[in-house]
Amino acid sequence: MKFRKQLKESDILAVKEILNSTGFFYDFEVEIAAELAQENFAKGEELSGYIFIIVEKDRKPVAFACYGKTPCTADSFDLYWIAVHQNQKGSGIGKILMKMIEEDVKKLGGKNIWIETAGRILYNPTRKFYENYGCELIAELPEFYGKDDSKIIYLLKV
């Protein structure tokens, strides 16, 4: 596996492919992730505010993470996306990405990584992943995204 932070133009479509493979995300969410990748590709991480890590296997992107400094905070970062292609689930890539994000945020002077996810039953494995990694459940906002779909907020101290 190869990990890189420099996006290629082809990564914009790869981000969409990875997200679509999971079956977790609405079409509009996939488009937003692609827009963030496009923004990073066009402006770079410093000007765009979006940091990406792309994971390649056999020269093909199979996972990615997107995070960035939370505006108007001293030392908080948001984890916007972490996704692993469905055919790579259970391979440990997600855990490696989390560790890389944690180390990078620390290097950038961050102390908190805020993570938001959905409360739908479909997201049980996602929430379990964050909890097993050591993220602390901070809040649940009922019906935030829609009926029976809370916003779940985790914190990872670095």
What do these coordinates show?
The chain is α+β, with helices and mostly antiparallel strands and about 160 residues long. The protein has a single domain (about 1-155), classed as 3-Layer(aba) Sandwich (Aminopeptidase). Helix content is about 40%, strand content about 35%. The chain has four helices and seven strands; from the N terminus they run βααβββαβαββ. The protein has a seven-stranded mixed β-sheet with strand order 1-2-3-4-5-7-6, with helices on both faces. Helix 1 (about 10-20) crosses helix 2. It is globular. The mean pLDDT is about 95.
Strand order of the largest sheet: 1-2-3-4-5-7-6
Could you say what the CATH architecture is? 3-Layer(aba) Sandwich
Low-confidence stretches: none
Write down the CATH class.
Alpha Beta
| Percentage of residues in strands | 35-45%
What characteristic shape results from the CA principal axes? globular
Q: Could you state the CATH homologous superfamily?
A: Gcn5-related N-acetyltransferase (GNAT)
Q: What is the number of strand segments?
A: 7
SSE sequence, one letter per element: EHHEEEHEHEE
Mean pLDDT: 97
The number of helical runs is 4
Radius of gyration: 15 Å
- Determine the N-to-C terminus distance: 25 Å
Q: What name is given to the CATH topology?
A: Aminopeptidase
How many domains, as an integer?
1
| Largest beta-sheet characterization | 7 strands, mixed
Helix percentage:
25-40%
- Kindly name the structural category: alpha+beta
